[in-house]
Every structure is written in C-alpha cells, then in structure tokens.
Amino acid sequence: MDSDNLDGSPSKWRQYRAYNLITVLAMSFGSLSFGYSNNIISTTFGQPTFIKYFELDTRSNATELKGVMNGGYHAAAFIGVLFVGSLADRWGRKVAISVGALLTLIAGAGLAGSVHVAMFIVFRFVSGAGSSILLAGVPLWMNEVVPAANRGVLVDIHGAVFQFGFAVASWVGYGFYFLTTKSMDAWRPPLAFQCLPPIITLSIIYWLPESPRWLLMRGRVDDARSILLRSHTASEAQIELDRIQAQMSVDRTLNNSYIHMFRKASYRKRCLLAIGTCMMANCSGILVINNYGPTIYGSLGYDSEKQLLLSAVWSTFGIFCSFCGFLFVDRLPRPRLLTMGLSGCVVCLIVLAAMIANYGSSQNFVALKASVAMIFIYEFFWCGVLSGTQFVYCGELFPSHLRAKGLSLGVAGINLANVIFLTVAPTAFANIGWRYYLVFIILSGISAIVIFFVWPDTRGVPLEEIAALFGDYDEISEPHALQQDVQVVPQVEYGASKEVSTHHEVAVKSLE
Hints:
Structural class: mainly alpha
Number of strands: 2
Family: Belongs to the major facilitator superfamily. Sugar transporter (TC 2.A.1.1) family.
CATH class of the largest domain: Mainly Alpha
Largest sheet: 2 strands, antiparallel
Strand content: under 5%
Strand order of the largest sheet: 1-2
Helix content: over 70%
Order of helices and strands: HHHHHHHHHHHHHHHHHHHHHHEE
InterPro entries: MFS_dom, MFS_sugar_transport-like, MFS_Sugar_Transporters, MFS_trans_sf, Sugar/inositol_transpt
CATH topology of the largest domain: Growth Hormone, Chain: A
Radius of gyration: 23 Å
Pfam family, one: Sugar_tr
GO molecular function: carbohydrate:proton symporter activity
Keywords: Membrane, Transmembrane, Transmembrane helix, Transport
CATH architecture of the largest domain: Up-down Bundle
Shape: globular
CATH superfamily of the largest domain: MFS general substrate transporter like domains
C-alpha cells in the first residue's frame, strides 16, 4: 500500500517533494514582480529627487497627482485582472502569467525613463494591469499544480514572496536615497529594477509545468499525467488523474461565463464571498500604510532618511511574519483566521490613531516609538494571518471551470478597495490626518464580525460537502450518474474518501 494513512488516504507528508517546492519557488518570481512593482511607489514618493524632478513640492495639484499615481495603478489593475480568467482558460495559466510579466517589464522601463508626469502616470497604469494579472495568475497556477494535501502552505508562499518583493523595493529605494546629492536621476534606477523579476519569470516559465487541470480541459491527458507523476507518487498521481478527469467530464458541460457566475444563485454566493473576502481584508488599510509609509512616519516627526529606513525594516519584518503564517494556515478554520487578522489590525490601528492624535506633533519619543511598534505589530496580523489566507480561501471556493474567473474577481475586489482608499489618501492625510484611520477601524471591525458569523469554512472539507454548502448538486445531471463498477478510492483533495468510477462516466458530486 503506497499510502501512509490507515484510511487509505495519501499521506500529507509524502507530498512535500523537492520538485513541488522548486517549481513553486520558481514561479514565485511572478509574485516577486508584483510585490516590487506595487511597493516601489512608496519609496519613490520618499525620494527628494523624484519630488523635485516632477515639482511635487511646488505644484498646486501635487496632492491630487500623487493620488492618481497610486489610485490609477489600482484602477488599471481592476480592469486588467478581469482578463485573467479568459486568458488563463483559453491559452493556459502560464500564458496569462507571461502576459502579466511582459506588461510589468514594459512598465518598469517606461517608469524609469519618464520625462514628465503624464508619461509616468500612463506607465503606472500599465504596471497596475500587469502586476494584477500576476497577483491573480500565480496563485491560480499554484492552486492547480501543487498537491492538494499541502495546498495551504505551498500557496501561502505566494504571499511570502510578494512580501519579499515589498521589502526589496523598500531597501533599494533606501539605498538610492543617499545618491541624492550626486544625481538628480537617483529615483530612476529603483524603478528600472522593476524589470528584473519579470525578465526572470519570462526566462524560466517555459520549463515550469502547466496546470494539469487546464491540460485535461484541453484533452491533453498524457501531458497532465506526466506532470502529476512528477508532483505525486505513482499511485496518488493516478488517483488524482482519475478524479480530475471525472470532474472535467462534468465541467465541460457547464457554462463558465461571468454572466452565468452571477446569474446562478450558488455561484453568485461564491463570487460575493471571494470579492467580499478580499475587499474586507484590504479594508484593514494595508496599502495605505505601505504606500504612504514615509508620510505616516513623517507625521510622527521622523526625517526623510528615517522614513525610508523604517519602511524598509517594516517590509522586511513582514517576510518573517509571512513564514510564521505557514505554521497555522492549515490548522485553523479559514473564517477564524480572517477574523483574527482583521481584529488584530483593528486594535493596532486604534492605538496608532490615538497616539498620533495625542502625540503626533510632540517630542514625546516614548509615544512615537509606541506608534511605530503598533505599525509593526499590525504587519504581523496582515502578513502572518490575512495576506496569504485570502488567496487560499478564494482558490478553494470555486470549482475547476470557474476558478480562474473566480480568483480574478477576488483580486478585482482588492484593487477596487485600493482604488478607493489610495486615491483619497493624500487628501485625507492632509485634511483630516489621524481621523482617516477611523475609516479602516470601523470597516475592519464590521468585516471581522460578518466573516466570523457568515463565512463558511472550506478547510479540510471534502469537495462534495463544499458543493453542498452552495447547493451545487443540481449541476450534475442524471446522465453523469454512475450506473456500474463503482469503487471507493482515496480522495486526494482534502484527505477524505469519495466514490470514483473505474470508467470515464462516474458519479461526481463535487464541482471543484
């Protein structure tokens, strides 16, 4: 018997294979591309040479321009991510990721070479579209390639690596700050470095496996089997192949358009959960704190150099927090994790707002240090609890034929929230200061309560039971029901058992 478990299910630990880890880490250069391109604007705003070059210290509309540079990025990201589903379903998961990498590469070159504000804003739009495709495409690929028993941990690598990209951008920006006195173009090289991760992604993606689920959707059974044999033991690969083929026989008969996803009640519920999860997680205000980190530290009395240094250390601390998240992402119910993360962020923001309100303009260094400490503790709840969990949860909500579009909707929710919060942030900080944090405190508090009491848990639930949560049994018509030769085989997806036929016509009660 190949399985290590007495119930016949494949052992979780057998799936930790070097091949799986290497392929996930290699594709994570796409995650790195997103993290770097997303965060580089934070240190760019902290570069005196950038501010002076584009006259953001003297223009009457400087605050609005900063808002457009940030909000426009996410507006383009919102639009771009909606094409991920169509790209990934028609041409493959790797092609979608390649398109995102190419756009991010072009944007990095354009941003570094910008000679006026309009040109910079245009390439920020291009960067937003490309990075959002990577943000959705990479975890989509990971969800479908990695062994299901360890999906939570392996997909969480996406969040850890794009956090690493945030940290790299912060340190590069900090390093080039010291070239201010030597060159007025010191702000350009950090933006040019945005090109490096997507170049690596485009260089290696040919040798990485395609999603076996997508291959089976295209009828490429031998290619799918070959990939599964590299990522699973032989017996487990066959079980997985049989299970996916069974699902594909059903999925090919189903409508996967965006319209149908919102027209059918059970699919609509999944879509709203995905969008709601990602929007609520980002109502914590993470990108406002990240992208306007130097502004926040400036309000606490720190000079330009210290602002960039604190932002870099904060992003680096996030890497450690992301790896801490690996310890419990598969141990606690998804809604409980999301609630814990949002609640922790709320407490930190309450203390931070109170500190800034009372001591922001004072010389009380103890209070200022306490404010910085709150920002760092906040980072733990975001990176260690919320960041990766939102992608894992959204990937589990949808059946195979809807996963690309479903995950895209979730990421669109992230971008929609950030368009709203980031566009108004400069004006809000300038006019209402610390009171802007109250928006995130109230929204995150409400979100934590709603998620705890309303959101269904998908961790460790057999696929047929996930389908039952959304009333999807009626999607399986009678012709798909098994008439003969049924045997019980291990169900790989969540370590449970399900009935799978030895023939191609099977009784399938789940829509992965």
